[in-house]
Design brief:
The protein is mainly alpha-helical. It is built from 15 helices and 10 strands. Strands 1-2 form a two-stranded parallel ribbon. Strand 3 and strand 4 form a beta hairpin. The two termini are 53 Å apart.
Length: 416
């Protein structure tokens, strides 16, 4: 890669990628090369635009689908079975660059032979990526969307890449305060639960086994047959607690509903943010990193997930000396489902702060898909009562309810 650095950074060349964000991150982390200035197209994003119904956008899947190319997967190409073992071991490419291969692996092939095999595999990937780019470019031109891709989708990829690189600043002091308040409230609910149920202090409200014994054997709560597990044990989850509270008015079920909500906030969001910052790349500057997936949903919204980083760690053995290995570690956090600030009493979203001199602006469309559909109706000359309703400023949902139910009442004004 370092040998090709001049070619990669030459602005005269236009680079076509498959999953540009991921590859650019790897190259930047390992080689320190900046590649954004000559990024031309991401054939994977083009694949998602050409066929929006397919959520699988792997290179081998797309090659077989559009080009009828049958290339072997990475795990099928780079695996070996040690002597006396039945399970195949997949070769990590970082092993080739950061240490010698296991002796049993190089019995028939040398270190250079494996490196040459990787080069051929990478060349096949490059050829398949280019062929798919040419194919999808023709498709997008036929759809009259090629210029829109270059103007919007391509820049959107670069924007997401920039967001991933910079990270999200977190107010760690506020995060600790919210985490403390949630822990205090969880303790209060657990104490109230034990007092109302007449339980000792050592009772564990997070133990499903103890809760099953309490509810079904001591208090003889009715069991829901449709909520049984594979072991025929009655299941206790939020769905069951809601039925116990709504249908029977059991106060203990209401306690457990509130407790589980706080448990989710603390474990999934608050602890996830804290550990994501502490063990991620932005521990020094309180930055939280994530991975944005431009093709993660069927209808164009982005999804978010943790990202993988390669770290050096010490591996210890019982019978042989320890050694340093390259391991994959998940860092960051899924930022897709942070609780709504208007529905969350703890306002967890307040921990996301802007850098000094900047402000965070939240913008959202109300009924954007409906507006787009009605705009196209207007553009095509189709008369639409909904469009007329929206242009008057009336509430389109009220108009729909009146029409469906056959009611005669005044349609309310929309709140914009």
């Amino acid at each position: 890669m370092l040998f090709r650095s001049e070619w990669l950074q030459d602005p005269w060349y236009r680079h076509v990628w498959w999953n540009y964000k991921e590859d650019a991150k790897v190259i930047e982390d390992w080689c320190g090369l900046e590649l954004d200035h000559n990024f031309w197209a991401d054939a994977m994003i083009m694949d998602g635009i050409v066929d929006e119904t397919d959520l699988l956008h792997g290179l081998k899947h797309a090659g077989a689908k559009w080009l009828n190319w049958r290339r072997s997967e990475y795990k099928q190409t780079f695996c070996y079975v040690p002597d006396g073992k039945k399970k195949a071991i997949v070769i990590d490419p970082h092993t080739l660059w950061h240490g010698p291969l296991p002796e049993e692996m190089i019995a028939e092939m040398s270190h250079e032979d494996w490196k040459e095999l990787f080069r051929h595999y990478a060349a096949d990937d490059a050829e398949e990526t280019w062929a798919l780019y040419v194919h999808h470019r023709k498709k997008l031109r036929k759809m009259k969307y090629w210029k829109s891709y270059l103007k919007y989708d391509r820049d959107y990829t670069k924007t997401l890449r920039a967001c991933e690189r910079r990270g999200v600043p977190i107010d760690m002091d506020l995060l600790k305060v919210i985490e403390r308040d949630v822990s205090v409230e969880m303790l209060r609910l657990a104490t109230a639960f034990k007092e109302d149920a007449g339980l000792p202090v050592e009772f564990n409200v997070q133990s499903n086994q103890q809760l099953q014994h309490l509810f079904f054997q001591k208090f003889e709560w009715p069991e829901f047959s449709d909520l049984r597990t594979n072991t025929d044990a009655p299941q206790l989850n939020d769905r069951a607690y809601k039925r116990y509270w709504n249908d029977y008015g059991f106060k203990l079920a209401h306690y457990m509903l509130d407790y589980n909500k706080l448990k989710t906030k603390k474990g999934t969001f608050l602890k996830g943010m804290r550990t994501g910052v502490q063990f991620g790349d932005g521990a020094k500057d309180n930055l939280l990193f994530t991975n944005f997936n431009q093709l993660g949903t069927r209808y164009g919204r982005i999804s978010s997930r943790k990202y993988e980083v390669m770290v050096e760690e010490e591996k210890h053995y019982k019978t042989r000396p320890s050694k340093t290995i390259i391991a994959k570690v998940k860092a960051g956090m899924n930022l897709q489902n942070i609780p709504n600030i208007y529905k969350d009493s703890y306002k967890i979203r307040r921990v996301f702060v802007a850098p000094p001199g900047w402000r965070i602006i939240v913008a959202d469309y109300s009924g954007f898909e409906l507006w787009m559909a009605l705009y196209n109706c207007h553009k095509l000359g189709i008369e639409s009562k909904m469009l007329a309703c929206l242009m008057r400023g009336d509430d389109v949902h009220s108009m729909t309810a009146v029409a469906v139910c056959g009611l005669k009442c005044q349609i309310g004004r929309a709140h914009v």
